[in-house]
């Protein structure tokens, strides 16, 4: 930091860093300048001057030249007193404007939400109406969805004829994406689609208040935090054909625990001479309605990605923004300058520059 007596405090580079708490004070500086000019205009003809005869010195041109130069310096010196007074008042007005440097820090805190993804890995997910397969597209889009989340705990349940909790709620997104990349249609040998059991697994994970070893969310909750929002995203391509729990009952349980349900029907209806593959929307629509969520149809990879993007926009966790300001005042420096110029003016008042004949 420069000392207060450095002229750097009057440089343009320094003033570009300042913010003025009372900028109107600077408008008084032109007013002071106007008063000085007004005083000069009113008293220009009433000034007393001491005339000196230099007729005898005119013969000596060199001495006359030196005397003329001295008179010119004295004439310029007459303005030192008013200039000092003007600078003193200007510096005091700058101090009154309170130049400051404000350093701002912005802190964002988000509680995040709990999201359980339930993905169908039954044999029908190997259909190629979504290239390369339905499961491959769902796996890739789910990983993109995970990349777009922040401060959210995300878990994973897979199901076919049975349902298994593959990954608990965690903020270790690298681990979660590794689980997603390992998904295949041979993970669960039991055939069928157990949507109700999958929902039950998700609900149990969200009801569990214990903190997983893979959960990096702090165990200490701030006083401002509210209850975390809970969401289930279920992706399937068929009707409920297996399991021990009816999907409607599971959806009602989810609603009772304040869990919102989003369901996605992936794939398009297909028929061939040997078999028919259908995508049943009825049960998926019903449980989404019961769970205060939404139902989506994804007939291609682009549409599935758009569905996940829409869910990501709908489910945003509240963010608390804290702004910290470090305010440093520099008015004292200009007070010191103002006092310095005032002392100079008082000193000049007691010299030839402050002679009453020049007032």
UniProtKB/TrEMBL annotation:
Domain VWFA: 114-311
Signal sequence range: none
Gene3D superfamilies, alphabetized: von Willebrand factor, type A domain (3.40.50.410)
InterPro entries recorded: UPF0353/GerABKA_families, VWF_A, vWFA_dom_sf
Family annotation (Pfam families): VWA (PF00092)
Matching SMART domains: VWA (SM00327)
Annotated SUPFAM superfamilies: vWA-like
Transmembrane segments: 20-42, 79-97, 330-348
Assigned keywords, A-Z: Cell membrane, Membrane, Transmembrane, Transmembrane helix
Domain of life, per lineage: Bacteria
Keyword Transmembrane helix annotated: yes
Protein name: von Willebrand factor A
Organism: Spirosoma radiotolerans
């Amino acid at each position: 930091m420069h000392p207060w007596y450095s002229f750097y405090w009057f440089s343009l580079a320094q003033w570009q860093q300042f913010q003025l708490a009372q900028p109107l004070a600077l408008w008084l500086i032109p007013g002071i300048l106007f008063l000085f000019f007004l005083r000069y205009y009113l008293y220009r003809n009433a000034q007393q001057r001491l005339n000196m005869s230099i007729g005898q010195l005119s013969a000596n041109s060199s001495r006359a030249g030196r005397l003329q130069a001295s008179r010119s310096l004295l004439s310029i010196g007459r303005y030192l007193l008013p200039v000092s007074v003007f600078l003193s008042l200007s510096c005091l007005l700058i101090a009154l404007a309170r130049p400051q440097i404000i350093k701002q820090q912005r802190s964002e805190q988000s509680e995040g939400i709990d999201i359980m993804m339930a993905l169908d890995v039954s044999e029908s997910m190997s259909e190629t109406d979504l290239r390369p397969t339905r499961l491959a597209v769902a796996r890739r889009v789910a990983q993109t969805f995970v990349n777009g989340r922040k401060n959210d705990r995300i878990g994973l349940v897979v199901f076919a004829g049975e349902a298994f909790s593959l990954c608990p709620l965690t903020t270790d997104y690298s681990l979660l994406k590794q689980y997603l990349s390992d998904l295949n249609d041979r993970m669960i040998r039991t055939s069928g689609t157990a949507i109700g059991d999958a929902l039950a697994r998700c609900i149990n994970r969200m009801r569990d208040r214990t903190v997983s070893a893979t959960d990096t969310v702090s165990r200490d909750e701030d006083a401002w935090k509210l209850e975390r929002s809970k969401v289930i995203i279920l992706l399937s391509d068929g009707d409920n054909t297996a399991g021990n729990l009816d999907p409607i009952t599971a959806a009602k349980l989810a609603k009772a625990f304040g869990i919102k349900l989003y369901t996605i029907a992936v794939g398009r209806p297909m028929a061939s001479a040997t078999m028919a593959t259908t995508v049943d929307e009825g049960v998926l629509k019903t449980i989404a309605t019961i769970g205060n969520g939404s139902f989506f149809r994804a007939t291609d990879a682009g549409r599935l990605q758009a569905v996940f993007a829409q869910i990501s926009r709908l489910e945003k966790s509240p963010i608390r923004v804290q702004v910290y300001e470090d305010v440093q005042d520099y008015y004292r420096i200009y007070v010191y300058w103002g006092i310095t110029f005032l002392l100079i003016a008082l000193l000049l008042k007691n010299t030839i520059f402050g002679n009453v004949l020049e007032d």
